[in-house]
Amino acid sequence: MIELENITVKFNDFEALHNISLTVKDGEFFTFLGPSGCGKSTTLRTITGFIPLCNGRIIVNGNDITNVPIEKRNIGIVFQSYALFPSMTVYDNIAFGLEIRKLPKDEIKSKVLEIVKKVDLSEMHLSRAVTELSGGQQQRVAIARALVTSPSIICMDEPLSNLDAKLRVGLRNELKRMQREIGITTIYVTHEQDEALTISDRIAVFNKGNIEQIGTPNEIYNKSKTEFVCNFVGDINKLNEKIIDLMQLDKTKQHYVRLERIQVNPANKDNLLVLKGKVKSSEYYGFYIKYYIETPHQTIKVIEKNDGINLFTNGSDLTIGIAKEDIMSY
Amino acid sequence: MKLNRIFSIFCFVLLGYLFLGFMVLPLFNTLSQVFTVKNAAGETDIFMVFKFLYEGTMSGFIFNSLKLAVALVLCVNVVGVSIVLLTEYFDIKGAPILRLAYMTPMIYSGVALVAGFQFLYNSDGIMTTWLCKVFPFIDSQWFTGFNAVLFTLTFASTGNHSLFLRNAIRTIDYSTIEAARNMGAGPFKTLLKVVFPTMVPTLISLTVICFTTGLCAMSTPTLLGYDSINPEIVRLAGSSSVDEAFPQARAALLSIILAMFTIIQLVILTIYEKKGKYLSVSKTKTKLIKQKISNKFVNIAAHLYAYVLFIIYMTPVIMLIIFSLQNYKAIEAKTINFSAWTLSNFVGKSDFEFLTNRGKTVIREGAISGLFANPDTISGIRMSFILSAIAAALACVIVVIACEYIFKNKNKKRAIIVESCLMFPWLLPTILICYSYRIFFNDNIWYVFGQNLYYKENVRLLIIMAYTVIKLPYAIRMIKASFYSIDEELENAARNLGASSIYAFIKVKLPVIMPNVWAVFALTFLALFSEYGMAATFHSSYGKTYSMVVKDMTVEAGRGGYNVNAVGRQCASTVFKMILSSIILLLVYGLGSMDLREKLYYKRIYKTKLKSMLKFIGFDKGKEK
Fold it and tell me: Domain range for residue B19?
């Protein structure tokens, strides 16, 4: 279990983290999500010891590690750039941590071979230079290197951001599989909401050095606690005053509704605010299409599955329905 | 952690001690010499030396040096820019061979090159004799004084253009040239308006380097007889007040004037470097395609010019190689004799039989000796080898440790102090530093535990110190750049895996920068190995380096049957320098720049080749069974 207690980090006069507190349970896949510069990587780096704290404590399995040197923490990390040692072969990279621990050569070899299997690399790769490998393979080496010393926790700092879109999706599923198999507590940093939602057990959403919300992917997406979270995670419609009036919502608050919650040409119009509109434009995404519907009050975004049934051309007339219970208010 | 701290405090104290002892005190001593001159009445007269500057010959030396520097800037830039354009920008037939020829000065600079040029272009030299035959209007005495120095230095100094300007022109985004051509500009207009501006920052740096070369020229004017500042400083430093008025104070003043010129140049360079606005903004560069010169007449003229330069660059190299393999008689006659080949200029010894004035036949034993059989040259080579290797290694070690410290304490005052201390020698001409050492340490100095560092063998330590100090700025500029190219996360990764700070540095960071450190070591060693000016300033028989031996080689050549093949040995020494430089440059830019991937690739290839060879011989049969 990892506990962060009131962590504050300052870079000269700039306070990068303000009183961050959170708890990560054993074996959990915990994600720090947020835009660039929000403090998610900084928080991760305080856990590994790369960044000293101004205030607060870090407790791992009941031990206070706030002042433990980096090399004594036994927390693995996979870097965004992978940080593989370019002057060493794949084998030497993975064996590095074991050699420092002065393990016998045979044991090092068997441990390296074991971890290599787990991350789906072949033994053939071991004698290669790391620069000979593809991005995906380098990523696997970085993970193997971090896992081989059997750390109590593994941290991953945007490990998929250097890969192309297809590989990224494939690897994130594999990451989750590996984590489940090994059962290691994992802290994952990303700015990609899709990645965070698909991979995590729980997510902490960061904004300007603060945590906005901690929750399961479903809680974060459907029950966003703050306006920032609901805006940052997924696409959303902000309702304007006229619609707020029509729906008799609290005028002192801001109201939002997710795109997929809006019904197009609804059959049952009970408990719905029904608006007539025209398709102004559309964005084609393959398995779904996003339409911009011009209603008399405001433009509303909706998405429709690309099933060949509800396909609209620009200028088509249609109706949309918004249910009160789908509104998120702040 | 504690050990780290103790180590960094120790390094700091050592650096402070060395900076004070080997920079501040000697320079202060030199400066004070100028103002403590006594006049005829025995009173200290602050302005005495300055009066001499106006009334004596000193201003003549300054003028000569400035004249040389300005002329050199013009000539080197014209030749340097044209050779780069001819090989990289315009479509000239045979460009790869031309490029190799234009790069030859990089392998035999310094005294070796000057001695070679002198041998070929002297009034009775083979080249001048040929030239006078072909063009009777040429004066056979053309290769003397200013002309000779300018000619030699021009062709010796274009190496930097070949290296740096070539890089600059190759990084040009070809799309910008296509865009200009597309809008109607011809190849020359494009060159002037698009290509040239991107070369300006490099050209300015090269101009400054070139100006310094001219101003601080040492071996060339000394060997070819031209009165410029540096040879005069060395002469004055070795002179005594019995022969002339306060020579040491005059030498000090001259070196301080030289320092002022250097500082002014550096200020100009820094201002321009900061202004640099001609950098390419393109992220997707297309490779440069060579431009055809469409005008036939201009095209022929350009080819003609390129090949005339080719002849100028290649002739000395070929001639020196040929003459190094000719016997002493052919060399003495300065003609190539196709039946007089010998290796005696390189290896072996033989006796020389000659007739004296009295008609007696005398045999002088071992008077013909090769470069590697002659005790003088061997001791010179050994001396230069040891001093240069130690100094180059010291400079690299100091700079690597300092860079790690600077890198770790980025933007902190203490890092800036360390860097400034190491860059300080850049502001000063090498001769000023060496001269200051020679004067300051030629006494029992309390600062170095009452030792006289100029006395006897101690001078070697002083030369090593001077070599190291002078090469520090170069080493720090090159090695610091490689430190900044290391992924900062590498150290974090190593520490995260359990490595201590020092272990992470040695195991992870050092291997990454090592190819660069080797390159700096090799190039520094090479420069120091053939260095003349500094060793000459110390002028001690205990520190007689290779270049000094080469310079002295011909003085007593053949007289009384001694040193009969001295000139041949000099040619051989130039060839030796060419071979040594080529090997080192090949190691640095070939093997040294290989990354692990390439090394493993070649290892695999050679392994398979070896296996198939063993199989072929029949060694592998056992395994097959």
Answer: 2-29+374-552
